[in-house]
Design goal:
It is a single chain. The chain is of the alpha+beta class. About 15% of the residues lie in helices and about 25% in strands. The chain has an eight-stranded antiparallel sheet. It has a two-stranded antiparallel ribbon with strand order 8-9. Strand 8 and strand 9 form a beta hairpin. The longest helix has 11 residues. It starts with 7 loop residues before the first helix and ends with a strand.
Length: about 230
């Protein structure tokens, strides 16, 4: 079961939710990496057009993916993900393989569910096998680096089976800082647009049953912008 395995009841009760502006300010600063390395571009940019995203890509040298979420036939919104291709190139390329629908076995992220919402913590998706959170595609991805820390909401990382080097296709997006995951999960990107943060706030507030959204929340579309 590809889960993040953190003690949610004790650590998150009374924590700040996504609506707290204290968790939504400015670019992320990280420790333990080369000085001057940036982990997040302008986290509240509008970035509504392809031209704007391409201009950002020219300035950062990174890749950008647009993900649209749908629930009950209604589009909830989209988020723009900046992939840290300069820090985690192998993990980013693996993610882009799923974005392009080219995982082994024909698996792809499009139409797969966001199967788990842990309020005040993270949302989780990417089970391209059966959507339960327990799907096993038959391969594993090495942990590339733990250079990027869980210091802010909107960061995307690879979920594992709880042991090193067991990531496959499932990912999570943080809803607040998750420092207890530092050194355990590989962060490879983050949400950079204002609409994306609004979507995360909306998703965090959805009704759930045993942390699964009701009705089902799915990735309507996901594509590489540039």
């Amino acid at each position: 079961d590809h889960i993040i395995r953190v003690p949610v009841p004790s650590l998150f009760l009374g924590g700040h939710s996504l609506s707290s502006t204290a968790h939504w300010s400015g670019p992320v600063q990280q420790q333990g990496v080369a000085a001057g390395t940036q982990f997040s571009s302008q986290s509240t940019m509008e970035l509504g057009t392809v031209e704007e995203v391409k201009a950002l890509a020219v300035s950062t040298g990174r890749s950008y993916v647009r993900m649209v979420m749908e629930q009950g036939g209604e589009i909830l919104g989209s988020c723009l993900l900046e992939l840290y291709t300069d820090i985690t190139p192998a993990t980013c390329q693996h993610f882009l393989t799923g974005v392009g629908g080219k995982f082994k076995g024909g698996y792809q992220y499009e139409s797969s569910p966001i199967h788990r919402i842990v309020k005040n913590a993270y949302i989780q998706g990417g089970d391209v096998v059966d959507g339960t959170g327990k799907g096993n595609p038959g391969w594993a991805l090495p942990d590339e680096t733990f250079a990027v820390k869980h210091t802010a909401p909107g960061l995307i990382g690879m979920a594992t089976c709880g042991e090193p080097h067991t990531a496959a296709t499932q990912f999570y997006i943080t809803l607040q800082p998750l420092s207890w995951l530092d050194g355990k999960r590989v962060i490879f990107g983050g949400v950079v647009d204002a609409a994306g943060f609004e979507l995360l706030r909306l998703v965090e507030g959805l009704s759930t049953n045993n942390e699964r959204p009701i009705p089902e929340l799915t990735i309507k579309s996901i594509q590489l912008v540039c």
